[in-house]
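Section 5: illustrative case.
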């Protein structure tokens, strides 16, 4: 990766641990960073159910600005969804991850989000990446639908070179010829990214597969391969999800999945924080 300067690994032990304010959670250390939540924020009741469920997540996800293939599909609750995110973060101390699609949304999102997600479709929106370089919060950068590892690393370099070193890479599957799965999870890229960059790398098995029955096995494989965490879609009534229902887990399945990860995490020298062990530090 000869062009990457700031995100390239300089020696084997060179890894970056990223703090997720306002909690005491970090990403890239011994503890895994597991984020769960719906594809789209739909209602306060939906998000309360997730926050109250017995699942050991360290962050909650949910889109309020949604990048949809069809302009006629639900586009997200927009600013109405932000109050829900803020309430969940305040009531439950759960860090919030949500997607930013455009530069003008950054200021609106900042007071409500702890991690800003750049979706696959925007991985090479260079103006957005430059603007996020000026933000003082971690960026979760998802791999583009058809981006090479090198293009992915250079997208991270854009953010870093504009001043923000707090970047979490996310492998979420890439397009291939087989439509049986929505995408193809590239675990080789996860290992490669850990070898060539010092950044934390997490995996999204939901968008990678598009099918809920494939999510848990691939989540386990990701942790075994050395991923620093997972971002997974779950919902109190998954079949009723307004977007991505087919890949969304029930809260029971999510709890079961996280339990099943514990021995795998231990086998690779990682750990999973129990529920309610998060502390707010500010
Ligand atoms: C999402 O996380 O809801 C999403 C749209 O993901 P991706 O950008 O990976 O398709
Ligand atoms: Mn989704």
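Designed sequence:
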């Amino acid at each position: 990766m000869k062009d990457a300067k700031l995100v390239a690994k300089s020696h084997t032990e060179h890894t970056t641990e990223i703090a997720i304010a306002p909690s005491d959670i970090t990403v890239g250390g011994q503890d895994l960073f597991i984020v769960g939540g719906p594809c789209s924020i739909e209602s306060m009741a939906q998000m309360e159910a997730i926050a109250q469920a017995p699942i050991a997540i360290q962050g909650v996800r949910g889109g309020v600005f949604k990048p949809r293939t069809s302009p006629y599909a639900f586009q997200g609750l927009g600013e109405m969804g932000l109050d829900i995110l803020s309430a969940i973060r305040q009531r439950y101390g759960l860090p919030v991850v949500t997607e930013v699609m455009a530069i003008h949304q950054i200021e609106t999102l900042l007071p409500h989000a702890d991690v800003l997600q750049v979706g696959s479709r925007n991985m090479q929106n260079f103006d957005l990446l430059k603007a996020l370089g000026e933000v003082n919060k971690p960026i979760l950068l998802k791999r583009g639908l058809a981006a090479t590892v090198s293009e992915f690393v250079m997208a991270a370099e854009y953010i870093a070179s504009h001043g923000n070193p707090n970047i979490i890479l996310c492998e979420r599957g890439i397009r291939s010829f087989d439509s049986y799965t929505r995408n193809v999870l590239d675990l080789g890229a996860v290992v490669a990214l850990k070898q060539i960059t010092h950044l934390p790398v997490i995996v999204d098995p939901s968008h990678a597969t598009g099918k809920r029955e494939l999510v848990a096995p691939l989540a386990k494989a990701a942790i075994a391969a050395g991923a620093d965490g997972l971002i997974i879609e779950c919902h109190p009534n998954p079949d009723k999800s307004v977007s991505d229902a087919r890949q969304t887990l029930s809260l029971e399945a999510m709890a079961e999945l996280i339990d099943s990860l514990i021995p795998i995490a231990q086998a690779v020298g990682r750990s999973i924080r129990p529920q309610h062990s998060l502390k707010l530090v500010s």
